[in-house]
Automatic annotation (TrEMBL):
PANTHER family: PYRUVATE KINASE (PTHR11817). Belongs to the pyruvate kinase family. The lineage of its organism: Eukaryota, Viridiplantae, Streptophyta, Embryophyta, Tracheophyta. Its EC number is 2.7.1.40. Keywords: ATP-binding, Glycolysis, Kinase, Magnesium, Metal-binding, Nucleotide-binding, Pyruvate, Transferase. One of its GO terms (molecular function) is kinase activity. It is an enzyme of class 2 (transferase). This is Pyruvate kinase. It catalyses: pyruvate + ATP = phosphoenolpyruvate + ADP + H(+). The keyword Nucleotidyltransferase does not apply. Its cofactor is K(+). Signal peptide: none annotated.
Amino acid sequence: MHSTHLLLEEPIRMASILEPSKASFFPAMTKIVGTLGPKSRSVEVISGCLKAGMSVARFDFSWHDPEYHKETLENLKAAVKLTKKLCAVMLDTVGAEMQVVNKSEKAISLEADATVVLTPDAGQEASSELLPINFDGLSKAVKKGDTIFIGQYLFTGSETTSVWLEVSEVKGDDVVCVIKNSATLAGSLFTLHGSQIRIGLPTLTDKDKEVISTWGVQNKIDFLSLSYTRHAEDVRQAREFLSKLGDLYQTQIFAKIENIEGLNHFDEILQEADGIILSRGNLGIDLPPEKVFLFQKAALYKCNMAGKPAVVTRVVDSMTDNLRPTRAEATDVANAVLDGSDAILLGAETLRGLYPVETISTVGKICSEAEKVFNQDMFFKKTVKYVGEPMTHLESIASSAVRAAIKVKASVIICFTSSGRAARLIAKYRPTMPVLSVVIPRLKTNQLKWSFSGAFEARQSLIVRGLFPMLADPRHPAESTSASNESVLKVALDHGKAAGVIKSHDRVVVCQKVGDASVVKIIELED
């Protein structure tokens, strides 16, 4: 992997750009989160998605019921067994999302310059003149001149399927708007987004809590994507709620930044959350177009320095209906990788898109190419400088392991870990080679029965750039005698060889605990 690394600053022959890339076991270091839905819920399609590079499956509850998602999840489990590829589960909450309810599901045609009324009276039929919404406080939140955007679930930004409205007057609970563009709204549910308008809806709704405490608990979700996170307190409340739900105290919370309010409290939210999702669809409506890139670069930098995974959404919208992304989209994916994104989240593209497997494959290939020109040297120096001195014990070990691996041109870094923290810290320094994190299960008891932990930790590294987990045999503790460590190491090396990332005569950097000491060692493989 390291040998193909090149820098754009170095003189390269243009012809060399066209040379085909070598296929590798790991499609890319950057991870791909796929949203499963109507077009991607059969065992066959999910298996295709996993082989193409999806490592986290997202279940969006603003769409369909728990029973539907349960069937999809059963198919995911079957696909994981079939392909022998690990996959984590992310539950995406509805949160403070305003929706237009179209019970009849008839297409609604809206003409530019006409007026339409938004009403909280859910009993009304949706029509070209009247749109019922699920929130009764809109009339108090908006004023004349405000903009409102309505589009089908995960709007693609196409102006024929989504509509801009301008508030012209407020009549009691109703909001009268002027339509700014002609559009046809098709489907049963549309998302309504008020640009820079504060909405008094809870971040974790009662419906969300019910879904998490039933579906979430039954399926031991790895990640909770907290929609419309606006304050650090939102994350604290969600964490407190999860802590009372059995195994879900281990679930990681990813704060989804979707509006100006979340952006204003970004630093405090980042401190509380386990990771960040930049919801560029909604943010793109709240922010002036010329500021979108700036927010992305600043937010990704902050996440990288904090060593917390950052996920970017809405990258290849046009692949919902087409086999090939636009030039702008292809460049956008690469820039997200160069900016430091850990994972790319696909929404409509896999949920209702016509080409879910091809989309994942295409995004993976673009990520892989971008990683080859990622300036690791500069990133490493920047991170070390940001962390400052004195470094913590673990941080020092992690950065040393990465530095050693780069100096000796190691083909892989193997890290023994039980909590996953050491492996995540190594990945924080963005080594150019994959990090195999060998998760050593820990035996724990609740006085009634014994159980092993480790599966959560392994799956949670599936969203971190460059981290590839494997679960070790629980009979090998993380801090143990050299003999048992050697046998786990042999299993890890065999796994690497089978995966094609380690060959004979390769050098491998190993990071592990021996007694109370942490050790970084370099080994050279024989024939």
